[in-house]
Structures are given as C-alpha cells and as structure tokens.
Amino acid sequence: MGGSGKYRILASKLMALIIRSSAIHAAGCYTTGPIRNRIRIVEYTGPRISKDQADEKYENSPTTYLFGIGDGSKVIDGHGIAMFINHSCDPNCETSEIRGRVWIKAIRDIAAGEELTYDYNLYDGDEDEASCNCGAGSCRKSMYSGEELARRTRAAKRAAAKKRR
Questions:
Q1: Most Cβ neighbours (<10 Å): which of 8, 29, 49, 85?
Q2: 65 and 51 in one domain?
Q3: For the whole model, what pTM was predicted?
Q4: What is the pLDDT of residues 91-147, one digit of tens each?
C-alpha cells in the first residue's frame, strides 16, 4: 500500500467485498482477499437524517441500517455495502468517525473469505430488539454495549427496589 498516515490509498479500491448468506444475520459482507490490520475497508454511506426523522421513518420496521454520528442527534440511513457488515462481540473491524464520515477499519489481519464484523455497541432502542447471534465465546447475547447493559441492569434494580417499597 503506497502512502502513509491519513492519505493512504483506501483498501476498498484494491479489494472486492461481496454480500452473501451469513450465520450471524441473514446476509453479511465478506472479503475475497486478505486485509491487513488497521486498513480502512469501506465507508458507511447513506443520507444523513435526524434521529427523530429516523424514528418516524422506521417506527414499525423490524430492520434498520442506521448509524449514529456525532452526538447521536444525526444518523446515517445506510445504503451500500457497509450496511451488510454484521455485529459481533468478537469483531475483526471497528468504526471510526473522521470529519463526519464513518469508516470501517480492520483491527486485526483478516483472511480472504472471512465475514467482516464490528461491535455495534448499541445505546438506545427497545429492550428485546437487540439479541446477538454472533456465536463468539465472549458473546454478551446483546448488541447493546456493555455500558448500556450495565445501565439497564442498574435501572431494573432501582425499579424493583422502588416497587418493593
């Protein structure tokens, strides 16, 4: 890969990503060639809309491809190959927001044919809509972040204690 630092040629220009069936969730994004650690793979693209607009647009939809950006008041309404990258509690990628753009980047070397995944670290939504099927040994059984799960546990304990009074 030529160049250095933030001006490095993007790996997605040199590799093919494909969408196919996934054991994690319906369809997944796979690479056809190896990817080196720390390489930007693909940008999460789509229209930017307010969180309120997204809530209204997808109120009765079981599936969304929304990605919160900035302070969470705006989301990317996913269109493109990155929207097929599934959640895993033991991911091979992570996301980075760089100047308002969201990139999926390798956090380890990824073998050809491997499914790309990142930890969604969800922080809002309904209680029962975020079960995880990643199958990792370290699976939280939820796509919510560890911090959000802890917050919800504390809130449930407070509510139970209040109810007992």
A1: 85
A2: yes
A3: 0.83
A4: 999 999 999 899 999 999 999 999 999 999 987 766 666 889 999 999 999 999 989
